[in-house]
Every structure is written in structure tokens, then in C-alpha cells.
């Protein structure tokens, strides 16, 4: 296998540009379609890089002078660019959020109506923090009138307003990922699947396959061949499940996460009336983290902005790492192709990292096959020294070294929360955790089961979903399975019957032992369905009914009961049950939400070293960062080295990891590692280490 690069003139060339050691690495071969696509992407980028698009003449007054005192020249260019399409490439640590906040404040100070501004972000927290900072900056609460939130939450609002134009009733239920998997399981069990020697993929994997097919606009069979090849014989069956899944949701007025975007795009494309209303409302569109948008999100933003043409997208192509969630890396690369008069603004001054660390991460950028040109600069000199690359005999030795260095850093006065250990996969951190425990060093692990996915929380929310939508057969199936004496098959049949007929459906079970429990359940649902009682009271009624059920199900029910006051307090901020359930589905509290606190803030992990996957670390920063298990086959993953797009995403993941460090960066790998329960010797460090000149790091 050979490595291919795209030259400056857009041609594909075979190349091995590194030291002789890198000749040992295998590189994916590009087929003709990949060659053509990468050549085209290179050409598109080159066209905007070379374009001279002068900014419109700006008459500067006192307001502009204030901004020029607070921001650098590139940030000011982005802030003052209020009209036309604008692409902002914001390098790591370059003050992206600050720029968006100041641009929003500037728009309001220039008299633009807040109701005409749409700010799309990737988390509700990010949107909330931005609007709060804008209010602080302008000294008023004007930013509260801006529409700011995630694509999914915005789609939800618009579908409830205008969904009727495409046949969607406004009281639809939103299914979270667990609901979707359960629904798929129900559908799978109704099919007559021919028995073979191989096991069918689990419901969660089938849900992933279907979602990936939709987000990448590829047939099920192609997705399975590319990423789930061991299930290739089940392609036809999974395609039938996907077809049944779509029908099932439509009949019950249910939408999953992908539906919110797909149906919203369908609304914009098929309803001129809805499109015109939305376009007339929003004249200024901003999209944050544009490199992480998928096909639907990219099209949605383009359609809304098509009338006013005032769209600014902000992102960093070097930090696009969510293809597995459907992110389309090409959106940010092809923006100049969709908006031919787009201006390009680059934020290249880094306010995070020490200069020698930045020199190293700039070298990573140079190895991308195709990207916007960027060389970040910094005036920060906190620590003398380059990144340290260190090899160990075993992962256990690697863990001991990391723990030992952390101990030294803590003794030198570095705060625990300013130290992070990052890794490609969770199991890579096992030996580090063990070594930290032996030394009595406290640590926080980012990730885990989300609050909303805990069994008892999920159960209580299922009762609430049935109250909101009595046709929600997934939630009905879940609560019927909680009734003693009812098995999976009976619960599924009863859920279907109840969704169609309502409470009268239980009369067919009048002679069963569990009939009395069904009556109690229906009575509880009827009492809790009273529109005149508060949401908190609804939850209290449900929890009181559910407590004895939980006590029978779980040995640690006493501990689990402590989570219910948290749930009730979260609900106290809502007047309408539908809004509470919608927000809980779209932006659920995560595992950081402890049973003793309702809101999470960084102080919960104070005095703790952070252990995190790289995906969970994006957007964060620490004084000192350890990136571990940098072996070929581990990072990049052995599954990623056969496809150019997958390998490039792994390289971007490495860039994200290294660019989290402010002062110190340790890059480590064991020579002997554990693979599938067996020791496997490998002499190769990650290619991402090998492809950078040793003049940019130290070797220990």
C-alpha cells in the first residue's frame, strides 16, 4: 500500500515524505473516485485561499474602536463582517467563542433586531453561555430575545409550529437513543428471521447502522460493508427492520434525533410557506462548530440563509472528529463552493498553548491530506521544553510513569484539575487508573452512563411519556414489562393494543393474575394526566407508584431513590410536560450530574486529575496533558488504516488531543501491548509520531 498526497496544483501524487522508518507503515490506496474527490476539495480550498475579497468599507466610530481595543485584527474582521456569506476558520485556542460573543453584541449595538438573529450551536450549554456573555457585554438582557440553541432544539420548535404542512402533528414524542434501540428490538422480534449459524447484531448496533445510513445518505448494505462487515449477511434483514422502524414511528407520531433534522429539512424543501416564514424571521444566521455539521444541518443552514445571504459559519476543519455521529467533514471544505462570494477569515493567534507546543501541533496540521492552510502563532512562554515522547516495555510501565509524573507535578504546585490523561479508547487507561489508585491520587473519569439512561430514571420518564402521548408504544412496552407476571411477548402485544384502544385494552386480560396491577397502573396514569396539576406533582405521583416496583427490581433501591429529588427539581423549571420531556431528550443531563447536586459545574471535579477519551475532551484545555497508548493499531485504530477518510479523522483526533495542552505535553506508548486478551509485541509507535521530525520534540 502507498501513501498519496494532493499537491498544490490539485494533482494526486504518490509520496513517502518521511524518514525511512515510516516506510514500514501501510497507507490506504485511493480509488479513482477518492482521487477525484480529494483533487476537487483541494481546488475548492485553493480558490478561496487565493480569492481577494476585500471587506466592505466600514465607517468606524466609537463602538468599533472599543472592539479594536478588545480583539485582535482577525477577530475584528469577523465581528464587523455582518453581511454576506463568511467562513471563519478558527484554529485551536484562537478565541472562537469570544469572537462569536463579540460579533453578536456588535450586531445588537448596531441596531439589528435580536429576533432576527439565529445562533446554532452544538450544545444548549454553549448557547446559554454565549447569550449570557453577550448580555454582560452590552449591559442589558437583549440577547435573551435571540434564537440560540442546537440544531435539534431549533428543528423541534419549528416542526411543532409548522410540521402540519408535511403531516406532522405538533404533539409528537421525541425518542432518545435508548428508545430507538428498544423500538428496533420490537420490530426485529416481529420479523420471521431465518436462523443461521451467526448471531444477529444487537439492537444498539442495528440502531447505529440505520442512523449511519441516514446521516451519510448511504444504503444499509454499503454502510454494513464499510463499517460492520461481519454482519454483511444480515444486510437485507436490517434494511427490512429500518423500513419497519420508519413506519412504526410515523404511525405513532414519534420522531427520533435523526428525524428532527430530516423532517425539518423536508419542511424547508417542500413547504414554501414555512420556508418563507422562517427566512423572513431570521435574517442573520451564525453556525458554531461548523466542521461537525452533518448533511442535513449543512443544507438547513443554507436554505434558511438563502434569502438574506447573511450567514457566518465558524469552525476548524482540523478538529472534525465526529464522523461516527454523522458529521460531514466536507461541509466546511465545500462552503466556498456553495457560497461562491464567501469571504474567508482566519483566526490564527493562539491564546492557549506555549510556543514550542504550538510548533509541534502545527506540524500535525501539515500532514493532513487536504485542509485550509493555517500556522497558529503564540507569544506564550510558560515552560521551556518541547513535547516529550517516551516508549515503555509494557502498558503497566506506561501507567506507572504517568502516575509518577503526575505525583511530581502535584508536588510542584500544579493543581490536579489542570492535569489530564487522554486516550483513544477507554480501556487504554486501565493501568493509569490502577497506578493512580495505588498512589492515592484522586481522579475523575469523563464519560459513563448518562443520568437519563439510568434504569430507574428511564422507567419514570416512560410513565410520563405515556401521559404525554398515549400512542408511545415503546414507553408502554417498557412500563408493562415492569408489571409482575407480564413477560416480553405479552408486554409487546399489550402495548400495541393499548396504543390503539387506550385503557380499555387491559380488559382482555381481566382473568389474569396481573390484572389488578394493570388496573392500578391505569388509575395512576389517569390521575397524573390531569392538566391542572404541576409537572412536579405528576412526577411525584409516578414515583410514589414506582417505588415498590424499584424495590423489587434493584438491591440498591435506596441509593437510586436519591436521584428522584434531582429529577423533580429539574422539572420545577417547566410548566408544560411536553417541554420538559423534549428538553430531557434533546439535551439530557450526563453522568457528571451527581445524586446530591442538580446542576453540574467544574467545581465538582476540583482537586481531581482528569481521565478522558479524546472525543470527550474536545473544547477543553489543561496545563499538562498526557496522550497515552500511541501505538500503531491502537492510535490510529487498526480499522482506520485501510480508508483514507478514516485515517484522516484519526489524525485530526490526534491533533485535538495534543492541542489541549497549555504548558506540557507527554506522548507515550508501550512496546508490548495487550490485544484481545493476549500479549502482542509491536515495534511501531503511532505513525502520527513517526511522521513528525524529532526536532519538534524530545525523546526519553
What are the SSEs and their pairings?
Blueprint: E1 4-6, E2 12-14, H1 32-50, H2 62-70, H3 73-80, E3 86-90, H4 96-109, E4 117-121, H5 124-138, E5 147-150, H6 151-162, E6 173-175, H7 177-190, H8 203-215, H9 220-227, H10 235-251, E7 254-256, H11 257-270, H12 272-281, E8 284-287, H13 295-305, E9 311-315, H14 330-333, H15 335-338, E10 343-347, H16 355-366, E11 388-394, H17 395-411, E12 419-423, H18 430-439, E13 443-446, H19 455-468, H20 473-481, H21 488-501, H22 515-528, H23 535-553, H24 557-561, H25 564-571, H26 577-586, E14 609-613, H27 614-617, E15 622-627, H28 644-658, E16 661-675, E17 678-681, H29 687-690, E18 698-699
Helix pairs in contact: 3-4, 4-5, 6-11, 7-8, 7-10, 8-9, 11-13, 16-28, 17-18, 19-20, 19-23, 20-21, 22-23, 23-25
Structure description:
This protein is α/β, with parallel strands linked by helices and 700 residues long. It is 47% helix and 13% strand. The chain contains 29 helices and 18 strands. Strands 11, 12, 13, 14, 15, 16, 17 and 18 form an 8-stranded mixed beta sheet that branches. A hairpin with a 2-residue loop joins strand 16 and strand 17. Helix 20 crosses helix 21. It starts with a strand and ends with a strand. The N terminus is likely disordered.
- Sheet of most strands: 8 strands, mixed
Counted beta strands = 18
Low-confidence stretches: 1-20, 590-603
- Report the mean per-residue pLDDT as an integer: 85
Task: Provide the β-strand percentage band.
Answer: 5-15%
Structural class: alpha/beta
> Approximately how much helix is present in the residues?
40-55%
Outline: globular
Radius of gyration: 27 Å
Straight-line distance between termini: 31 Å
Q: How many helices does DSSP assign?
A: 29
